Amino acid sequence: MVTKTQKFLSRSALSTGVIGLALLASPAFAQEEATAAADSAADEGTIVVTGTLIKNPNIASSSPVSVVGAEEIALRQSNVAEEILRDLPGAVANIGSAVNNGNNGASLVDLRGLGSRRNIVLLDGTRIVPGDIAGRVDLNNIPLALVERVDALTGGASTTYGADAISGVVNFVTKKDFSGLEVNVSNQITEQGDGNVFRVDATIGGNFDDGRGNAVFSVGYQQSDAVYQGQRDFSIFQVDSYTGGQGGSGTAVPSRFTRPGSPQQQIDPTTGALVANYASFNFNPYNVFQTPFERFNLFGQANYEVTDGIEVYTRGMFSKNTVSTIIAPSGSFGSTVTIPYSNPYLPAAARAQFCAANGLSVAQCSAAALATDPDDPNYATFNTNLSRRTTEVGPRLSDYVTTVFDYRVGVRGDITDSIGFDLSGSYGESENIQTQRGYVLTSRLRDALLATNTTTCLSGNDGCVPVNVFGPDGSITADQIPYLTGNSTVAVRTTLAQVRALINGDLGVASPWAEDAIQFAVGGEYREYGARRESDLLAQTPGELGGAGGAAPNIDGGYNVYEAYGELIAPLVSDKPFFHSLQLEGGIRYSSYSVDAPNNPSYNTTTWKAGATWEPVESVKIRGMFQRSVRAPNIGELFTPVSTGLTNFGVDPCSGDKPLGNPDLQAVCLAQGAPAGQIGVILDPTAAQANITTGGNLNLKPEKADSYVIGTVIQPDFFSGFTLTVDYYHIKIKDAITTPTPGDLATACFGNITSASATDPNCLAIVRNPVTGGLDGDPSTTPGFLANLSNLGTLETDGIDLTWNYRHEFDFATLNLSFNGNWTNSSKFKSQPGAINRDCVGFYSVNCASIQPEFAWNMRATFGFENVDVSLLWRHIDGVKFEPQQLADDLAGAVAGGCEDPEGADPDGCMVNPEYRKIKAYDYFDLASRFTVTDNFDVTLTVTNLFNKKPPIVGNTIGSTTYNSGNTYPATYDALGRRFAVAGRIRF
Question: Do residues 662 and 680 lie in contact, with contact meaning Cβ atoms separated by under 8 Å?
Fold first, then answer.
């Protein structure tokens, strides 16, 4: 029997052979062993290895580190750090330039699919100020022009770097002792002539005072244009993942209305009558595949040797960037409104229908139609839930302007010939201001509907102009728009102050069987975090901004932590038979947290690690590491007030005729707040988005994780220039800070409906729209799913990383080959005891947000000639499927709903269309060539997605709105198509 591990290794070996023969080219400087890529520190010969605080030219950490070098960055022509990490095998695509609806103006990294909150991003081994209330670093602010390499260590690094590093750490290492002038200019454009990206960086630096000091300064600018989904043929129309046909939002034009005891109906502007829904709103053309982006950044650093063995250093970073998200027009998304029967725009046919539904006789209806004065006894109004897209206003725009500065200063030097110290302090601030434009204000819309003539509103409010929501597109006229709309602002400000003291070196003693002395590092840190979100009244009011996805309540919180830590690396044996080397590694960190809250929550944690490396012979190294890691709750998880927002949920178990003939299910729907008159006509959530209510929890405690990795490094003597690394990793997180997925919450209630379900707390944790009975609508009246944040979750993942590198010098050229692959065996998530232990590897659904393939690899092949390099990169993404558990849940609901062919592509959309239940494996090829024109000038040409491979089409309602957009998954698959980039570099 062939195991999954054997399958991975055999597939990797086969693919390696195929690509080597087929391409006859290879990747320069892509993925290297960490020890080979370590950077020189102030004292010559000392190296810094990500994963340990110990510095020594002959010592390396037992943890594997993936490295992306500056040459790889240049060949890819990456413009932001997120682009580099997105394609790293073992990472999962997160928020970045390909995410539109759900982007908060930042770009983030997710290691091992454990979430962007569970890693640390460092700059030269030091934390920098986070960009949001969740404590995450915005990768848009990393100065790529000065990055020498990117180290990614996965599998826990809390002992070395402190809490949050449960899934690992990403360390951006900048160039040291830069001297000269370097200017880089690049431009990118798609084959279709859109998506232009322009970037320019200038760096100047030099040594001074006879080499005792060095200073470098870099300035950069970048600008990226939007690529709209309407500019690609596969995404012009929104596709419903269930029916397989053209779909769209129920918040449409013409308007849709509710009446007691009737399904939601759409007005026919020609006849003025309410009829069955006949037109959905196609929102795709408004959304974007590439968010507009503009950045100005400054970076400077300097060091100076004050005296022999004592050096002062400093670093400063400033960045201002603007990310714009563009989504379809605002409107009334199922909000309850009150309308007089004498509203001047209300058609006679619709008036008669509303009168009949609300119990008015024909005579009463006629009298109410003529009563324009609220004091008139015949004056009457009706309530309805209005769904109307205000296309006349234009799209909803959010400009996120982020300003970051982070400053560090320190002194380091020698205490003795073998022991050094490093004392540093830093402070950073980040401000992210979101300006929302194009939103219809619900209170103003309600005001403008309370009118009995076409010129004045009954409220008498200044500027109020009665609005016509009963006509076709264009019925809301230019004079009606100003009163309906308003801009809103949300500002997020974060701070980080930190002080660190470190002493490291060797103890002056060695094992009797080894030459190198035992190495150590001890130190302490203090960090103080602060975060505040300040929203204006419009953003704070639930449902006021039409289509904003919920309120943005104010947040103000912080915490501090004191830490003490130590590490030890002990070479035990060297240059003995079967023991070319044997080395043990250990470390421990104690942390004490204090939260700035009335009850002053506090907690103490201890993390530790133990590892070893053994080289039986010089060409083979076996390594292993076990770590206990923790993650403290972030400010958002602690301090966010409870509020209602949106989540993804496509099929409501109470929708349509499912409750009819099933008294137990009907009782549950009623217990959740559905009106009796709506049973049988409840609709599925519009655009597959349901309401969810959640918030922070000051009672949260730190997560705990156990991780281990074991692997080997092989550099065979008989195969010069070749290096192979294979590492198995396993990470398990207990007491995970989680909320249940919508699927978990629905299954807990509807998975086994009985006569007692109507009083089951799991069922009562779902609260429906009091008018329509649905799970969407006005957030002020419809909580939807109630999802408490708790420490009840568990996460677990394991897999294998495989890398190899080969370099060979021919007479005419140099060949470089590199391969970096990952096999993820499992990635399980359990939100609470009794919930499904959901495995999302190789699956996609509303429960499995971003795609995590089972197999993924990058391989680069580069031929380097005297003045020309030619390089081909192969990116592989394994095939994935619709999540089996969600498919089973859908099938159960379809059977309960009486679908005649629940497993087919039925027109009622009971099940996901079979065509969208699987995505085949994807392979992308990128071609790059660099020409050395003169000693001081070179040009790089890159073609990304060489064969213009189109993304897979799965519809727009099969997964998370954040990642499932434009009928595909644009953060995972290339939605832009073939792109051309050219870059020039001048050096003096």
Answer: no
- The pair of structure tokens assigned to 137 is 């670093």
- CA dist 633 and 639 (Å) reads 10
Residue 536 and residue 556 in contact, taking contact as beta carbons nearer than 8 Å: no
Residues of the chain with pLDDT under 50: 1-47, 57, 905-907
The tokens of 206 are what?
């030099």
715 exposure class (CB count in 10 Å sphere: 0-12, 13-18, 19+): middle
Q: Render the burial of 944-975: b for 16+ CB within 10 Å, e for the rest.
A: bbeeeeebbbbbbbbbbbbbbbbbbbbbbbbb
DSSP H helical ranges for 456-582: 481-484, 537-540
Cα diameter, the chain: 107
Helices (H), 801-926: 884-896
To the nearest 10 degrees (0 to 180), the angle between helices 742-750 and 884-896 is 40
20-39 burial code (b ≥16 CB/10 A, e <16): beebebbbbbbbbbbbebbb
CA–CA separation, 187 and 43 (whole Å): 39
**Distance, CA of 412 to CA of 310 (rounded, Å):** 6
Measured at the alpha carbon of residue 903, what is the angle toward residues 900 and 908, in degrees to the nearest 5?
55
Decide: 582 and 571 in contact? Cβ < 8 Å.
yes
Cα–Cα dist 638/593, whole Å: 13
Euclidean distance between CA atoms 197 and 446, whole angstroms: 43
* Measured distance CA(639)–CA(697) in Å, rounded: 7
Partner residues linked to 403 by β-bridges: 320, 431
Give the helix/strand (H/E) hosting 160: helix 158-161
| Residue 77 DSSP class | T
Helix-then-strand count for the chain, H and E: 15, 46
Q: What is the pLDDT of residue 890?
A: 80
Q: For residue range 820-849, list pLDDT tens digits in order.
A: 999 999 999 998 888 889 999 999 998 898
Q: Which helix (H) or strand (E) holds 585?
A: strand 579-595
- 271-289 in b/e form (b: 16+ CB < 10 A) is ebbbeeeeebbbbbbbbbb
727: three-class secondary structure by DSSP = strand
Rounded distance between C-alpha atoms, residue 575 and residue 573, angstroms: 7
What's the pLDDT at 898? 64
Angle at 850 between CA 844 and CA 853, to 5 degrees: 65
**If you search the block for the tokens 């100005």, which residue do you land on?**
296
The span from the first CA to the last CA of the chain, in angstroms, equals 60
- In DSSP terms, 424 is beta-bridged to 410, 500
The closest alpha carbon to 399, from 437, 430, 439, 435, belongs to 435
SS (H, E, C) 263-300: CCEEECCCCCCEECCCCCECCHHHCEEECCEEEEEEEE
d(CA 247, CA 241) in angstroms, rounded, equals 8
How far are the Cα atoms of 145, 222, 355, 985 from residue 295, in angstroms, in the given order?
Answer: 13, 5, 57, 20
At 779, list the tokens.
């957030």
> What pLDDT was estimated at residue 80?
86
Asked whether 481 and 440 are in contact (CB, 8 A), the reply is no
b/e code 387-405 from CB counts within 10 Å (16+ = b): bbbbbbbbbbbbbbbbbbb
Q: What is the pLDDT of residue 452?
A: 97
784, 775 Cβ separation under 8 angstroms: yes
Contact 874/16 with Cβ under 8 angstroms?
no
Cross-strand pairs, 315: 301, 408
CA distance 562 to 558: 14
CA dihedral 593, 597, 600, 605 (to 10 degrees): -20
How far apart are the C-alpha atoms of 858 and 433, rounded to whole Å?
A: 37
Residues in the chain: 988
- Compute how many other C-beta atoms are within 10 angstroms of the C-beta atom of residue 910: 26
Reading phi first (left if > 0) and then psi (alpha if -120 to 50, else beta), residue 674 is in: beta
